[in-house]
Design brief:
Layout: E1 4-8, H1 14-17, E2 22-24, E3 28-31, E4 40-44, E5 50-56, E6 61-67, H2 75-91, E7 101-106, E8 115-120, E9 123-128, H3 131-135, H4 137-145, E10 154-157, E11 174-177, E12 184-187, E13 190-193, H5 209-218, E14 223-227, H6 233-240, E15 245-250, H7 253-266, E16 273-277, H8 280-285, E17 293-296, H9 308-325, E18 330-336, H10 343-357, E19 361-367, E20 386-392
Parallel strand pairs: 1-4, 9-10, 14-15, 14-17, 15-16, 17-18
Antiparallel strand pairs: 1-3, 2-6, 4-5, 5-6, 7-8, 8-9, 10-11, 12-13, 18-20, 19-20
Length: 393
């Protein structure tokens, strides 16, 4: 295959020499005619030296780099990268009989920018976040069958909401390979239904697995409130941990149905759990000293830098309400999954909320994303999940 060329402005190769996997549009001096979104391109310095190969797209990030060596990007490339990603998950102990749900590919963190793959039992759910990965979806699907010791049998493509809308790609969510077998997966011995057909993201938030395990150790003897519960992950970990009661709250009726189904899968007939379809602030206003363990895991308040200020106000208000209502000696798990919000900004918002409440608060843990969401050391932007575990006197 003959790749078209992109030539950088003088000095703009420095970030690539440090292996940062993005080329910004402002760094480009000129490019060959006829380059279209999703095309493979080779990137050259102003002196004409090869420096990277990747996918081109229109926008601020013009090239997502796949390789810093001059090589063909074909099926063997994807098989190699996907197998290396799988070997990492095996090495960190995520592939085992009591855990068949994990993230197999985390974009830049697995040197496949623009691609996310989550595995639920025998099904891989693929999300493209760039036109190039959308066009490569069939090669990726075939490659997934060739790796992971034959673990994957079905590949579901789910990119209707993740691709740039201006690209006009019209992706269709559907099976590329295989068919529906079962939507029940296992995480640390707990079962849950995964709705990859119509649910958020790939159907479940595997990025909170380690934090759910930590919560389990704090749940014994406590009354637990799981706000923004989605499909109830924190709730059934709290129940296994010995919570006296667990209440799950979400504004989505469908999410609450799935939460109830998941609790029933693991604790059939258990009266400790109740679920509520309710707005978060409205619910928090009425709880009055009822809970001594609260989880705040809201959806991203800021998906872009333009929404940052409002997001920080939202985090401060939400946490202030939790500080106001939680029992003395309570524990608060609070999170932000907004990539646009830094760790320091999130902590400042939570600290401001604590000061506003006038209560004594201590940090027990500072949390982040799990090891199957690795951060490329040359791409610190890949760190998106921030969390604090706080003891409130």
């Amino acid at each position: 295959m003959e790749y078209k060329r992109i030539i950088l402005k003088r000095g703009k190769e420095e970030s690539l020499q440090r292996f940062h996997p993005w080329v910004f549009s402002g760094a480009i001096a000129r490019m060959d005619d006829g380059i279209e979104e999703g095309d493979f391109v080779k990137v050259y310095t102003s002196a004409g030296d090869f420096i990277a190969v990747g996918h081109y797209q229109i926008g601020s990030i013009a090239v997502r780099v796949l390789e810093f060596a001059d090589r063909e990007i074909d099926e063997s490339f994807f098989v190699e990268r996907l197998q290396r990603a799988y070997e990492l998950r095996k090495a960190i102990g995520l592939v085992r009989p009591d855990n068949n749900a994990f993230r197999l590919v985390h974009g830049e963190g697995d040197f496949l920018p623009g691609l996310v793959v989550d595995v639920y039992d025998r099904t891989a759910v693929v999300q493209a976040h760039s036109p190039g990965m959308h066009f490569a979806r069939n090669i990726i699907a075939q490659s997934l069958l060739k790796i992971a010791d034959g673990l994957i049998r079905n590949v579901y493509y789910k990119s209707e909401t993740t691709l740039p809308y201006k690209a006009e790609l019209d992706p269709q969510n559907d099976y590329i390979i295989g068919k529906f077998e079962s939507n029940v997966a296992v995480e640390n011995g707990l079962k849950f239904h995964v709705d990859w057909l119509k649910g958020q993201k790939t159907g479940f938030f595997v990025d909170q697995r380690d934090n759910r395990s930590l919560l389990e150790h704090y749940a014994k003897g406590r009354a637990v409130l799981n706000m923004f519960c989605y499909t109830g992950g924190f709730s059934f970990y709290a129940m296994r941990g010995g919570a006296t009661l667990v209440h799950s709250v979400d504004s989505s009726e469908k999410a609450i149905r799935l939460t109830n189904d998941n609790v029933e899968l693991n604790f059939p007939g258990d009266k400790r759990h109740q679920a509520y379809v309710e707005d978060a602030f409205k619910f928090l206003n009425g709880i009055d000293d009822k809970y001594d363990l609260i989880i705040l895991d809201p959806p991203a308040f800021a998906k872009h830098k333009s929404a940052l200020r409002n997001a920080l106000v939202g985090y401060r208000k939400l946490n202030a309400k939790a500080f106001e209502k939680i029992r003395k000696g309570g524990i608060l798990f609070t999170f932000s999954c907004s990539q646009a919000v830094s760790k320091e900004q999130f902590r400042l918002a939570v600290f401001s909320a604590a000061a506003q409440s006038g209560r004594r608060v201590r940090i027990l843990h500072q949390l982040t994303q799990p090891s199957d969401h690795p951060i490329n050391i040359y791409h610190p932007e890949g760190e998106y999940l921030k969390g604090l575990v706080l003891y409130v006197e």
